[in-house]
């Protein structure tokens, strides 16, 4: 019943005061085929939850792979990039936005450095796993995000590419939708009148 109600409430533009985006799979892509040594143990998981620092992570990977730390850092940050059209979409939003994402500090900082439009996110309402030391779909992740936003659950639209995360958010009364490509994301936001055209151009290059 909660999920059904959340889905209905998400359809009304005047209800939405904040858009919360997942990053990987929604606005950005992560190429995990670059170097399997990054994922050989649970070190990547620990880094994503902020339980080890980047220096420790790269030291572990260097010992496993035999590669230098400087080379590994370059490989690692280049694994992640914004999807084509993502910056235009963020610039076209008619509501404030933030990120609720399972992401490590290295990838997050790289995205912000490379893509200026991402820097306009509401940091006070953000939910980043490396800061919270929690990951979706843990319920505490969403509870913490809600508390930080200081908003009613029904006034936040959450967009993620993983159904278990969407389901967890809906259990708290957060309108949420599963989107797996930028085309679907744009269509979903357009239907809710949450994006405006940029000089009459398409959002896609």
CATH fold name of the largest domain = Rossmann fold
**CATH architectural name of the largest domain:** 3-Layer(aba) Sandwich
Structural class: alpha/beta
How many extended strands?
7
Low-confidence stretches: 1-11
> How many individual domains?
2
Rg for CA atoms:
17 Å
Number of helices, where a helix is a run of at least 4 consecutive DSSP H or I residues? 10
Shape: globular
Averaged pLDDT, please? 91
- How much of the sequence lies in strands comes to 5-15%
Instruction: Give the fraction of residues assigned to helices.
Output: 40-55%
Run of helices and strands: HEEHHHEHEHEHHEHEH
Strand order of the largest sheet: 5-4-1-6-7
Fourth-tier CATH superfamily name of the largest domain: HAD superfamily/HAD-like
The CATH C-level name of the largest domain is: Alpha Beta
Cα-to-Cα separation, first versus last residue: 40 Å
Main sheet specs: 5 strands, parallel
Explain the layout of strands and helices:
Elements: H1 2-9, E1 18-21, E2 28-30, H2 43-48, H3 54-65, H4 69-77, E3 80-82, H5 86-91, E4 97-101, H6 105-114, E5 127-128, H7 129-132, H8 139-149, E6 156-160, H9 163-171, E7 176-178, H10 182-191
Parallel strand pairs: 1-4, 1-6, 4-5, 6-7
Antiparallel strand pairs: 2-3
